[in-house]
Amino acid sequence: EPINTSPGEKIFRELSTELLPSTEVSTYNQGIMEFGALQCTPKNPDCEPCPLNTRCDALRTKRVKDLPVKVKKTKVIELHMSFLVLITGKETVLRKRVGKGVWQNLYEFPSFVGSSSEDSKNDLGLFVSDAGLDVNSLEYVSASYKHLLSHRKIHAQFFVYRVEEIPSLLKRNTVVFEDLLGLPIHRLIEKFISDSPGFFKLDVKS
Ligand code: SF4
To answer: Residue 47 gets which letter from DSSP?
Structure first.
C-alpha cells in the first residue's frame, strides 16, 4: 500500500505505534529521525553498515530503490473564468464547448479563461467592446464560484449584461429562456442559473 494514501497512512501509523517502546519514547523518536536522516535516507540509504540489514525486507527483495511506494499526486491547476451572461427580455447566449478537454460538447455562457481573475476579466472586457456592447448595460456581477475538477480548481464569476438585442457577433448562439435547461449545460452554469433564476424568468428548484 502506498504510504501517502489514507489506507497506507493508517497501516504505517499502526505499525509504528506497535513498535513504540514503553519507556523513553522521545529518545526512541529522536533515534528514528536520525536513522532516517543519516542511515536510511530517502535517496541513498547506506545499507552496508546498517544495523537492520539482516532484517530489512527492502534489501532482501532488492527493492531498496522502490520502497516505500508513493503515489504521484496530480498537480491541480488553478484557473479563473469570467462568464458573459447576455440577457434580453426573453433570450440569452450559450455556446457549445468544442475541442478536447473539460466539459467537452456541453453548453455555457461565453467564457474567458485566464491564470488570474484580472486576465479573464480583461479578456471579457475586450470582447464586450469588440461586440459593441454598452459597458453601462452591466447589471450584475456574481460572487466568485469555486469548482473542483480532478486536475483543476476553477474560480468563476458571472457578468450579467442586459441588452435590447443580442449583438450580431453572437446572434447564432441565441437561446430562448424556455430552452435553457433543455440543453446539456455543465455544472457551473447550472449552479449560476439555479442561484439566479430571475434573470432567465425561470422557476428553478434546486
Ligand atoms: S538495510 Fe534497509 S533499513 Fe538499512 S539502510 Fe538499507 S534500506 Fe534502510
So the answer is: -
Could you give the maximum distance between any two Cα atoms of the chain, in Å? 82
Where exactly are the structural domains of the chain?
6-60, 77-200
Instruction: Please tell me if the CB atom of residue 45 comes closer than 6 angstroms to any atom of ligand 1.
Output: yes
pLDDT, tens only, 104-137: 999 999 999 999 999 999 999 999 999 999 989 9
Alpha-carbon span 50 to 43, nearest angstrom: 15
What is the ipTM score, two decimals? 0.98
Nearest alpha carbon, ligand 1 atom 7: 64
Tell me which fold the domain 77-200 belongs to.
Nucleoside Triphosphate Pyrophosphohydrolase (3.90.79)
Chain segment 96-112, per-residue pLDDT in tens: 998 888 899 999 999 99
Q: What is the Å distance from ligand 1's center to 5 Cα? A: 23
Cβ atoms of 86 and 161 closer than 8 Å = yes
Q: Return the CATH number of the domain spanning residue range 6-60.
A: 1.10.1670.10
